[in-house]
Amino acid sequence: MHFVKVLLAAIAIGLISPGAMAQTATTSPQEFVKAASSSDMFEIQSSELALRKSKTSRVKEFARMMIKDHTNSSKRLIAAAKKDDVAVAPEMTSKHAAQLEALSNDSSGAFDNAYVDAQVAAHQEALTLMTSYAENGQEKHLAAHAKKTAPAHPAAFQTCPATEQERFSGLSGSGHDVGSSRRCGVCANPLALPPPPGTLQPSSGRRCRL
């Protein structure tokens, strides 16, 4: 659906925003491994869920990419931790477990939107974690893993084919009037990003593509 493509196209911009790059306090190697492992597990399991629940081919394609990327990331994390003599006990944090349960129980009919929102949040958190540990981590191999992994988070979404032109072209025909805010004036679904100047005017009579 077009709404999902709008959200996917917005993710890369959100991930590289100043807020996403904010640094956290120094993280111990044990805390880093636990957080990174949980992040990979959540991405894999939520994407496996998307393959079962989504009816959108684009979302399933993206989910398969996430499973592959985070399976590889998890293997690299375990290898780096072993070299630095840091124990790895893969277990999802209570926060990630609750998010996964919420996705699993979602019956709103808008699973794709909930899944993409979860990907945005998870990758923002992971980018902050990796960037911080790459700069401040004391363990050589874990810090190297963080440095290598950090760019993969925004890059994952930059591979999405939805472009600025695609997101705001062909805006007629669906029946949803677009207001001046970032939400559809009828269905209230987020439009994710304001349109480029002159592309989508509230008074133009154009409509959203949801």
- Euclidean distance between termini CA atoms: 7 Å
Mean residue pLDDT: 71
CATH level-four homologous superfamily name of the largest domain: Ferritin, core subunit, four-helix bundle
Helix content: 55-70%
Radius of gyration: 19 Å
Query: Could you give the count of β-strands?
Result: 2
Structural class: mainly alpha
Taking strands numbered 1, 2, ... along the chain, how are they ordered across the largest sheet? Answer: 1-2
CATH architecture tag of the largest domain: Up-down Bundle
Write up this protein:
There is one protein chain. By secondary structure, the chain is an all-alpha fold. It folds into two domains: 2-17 and 24-162, Ferritin, core subunit, four-helix bundle (Ferritin); 169-210, no CATH class. It is 60% helix and 2% strand. It has eight helices and two strands, in the order ααααααααββ. Strands 1-2 form a two-stranded antiparallel ribbon. The longest helix is centred in the middle third of the chain and has 27 residues, at 57-83. It is elongated. The N and C termini lie close together (7 Å). Mean pLDDT is 71; it is low at 12-24 and 158-210.
Q: What would a concise description of this structure say?
A:
This protein is mainly α and 210 residues long.
Secondary structure: elements and pairs:
Blueprint: H1 2-15, H2 29-53, H3 57-83, H4 94-105, H5 111-136, H6 140-149, H7 152-158, H8 164-167, E1 176-177, E2 207-208
Antiparallel strand pairs: 1-2
Helix pairs in contact: 1-5, 1-7, 2-3, 2-4, 2-5, 3-6, 5-6
Keywords:
single chain; 210 residues; mainly alpha; Ferritin; 2 domains; two-stranded antiparallel ribbon; 2 strands; 2% strand
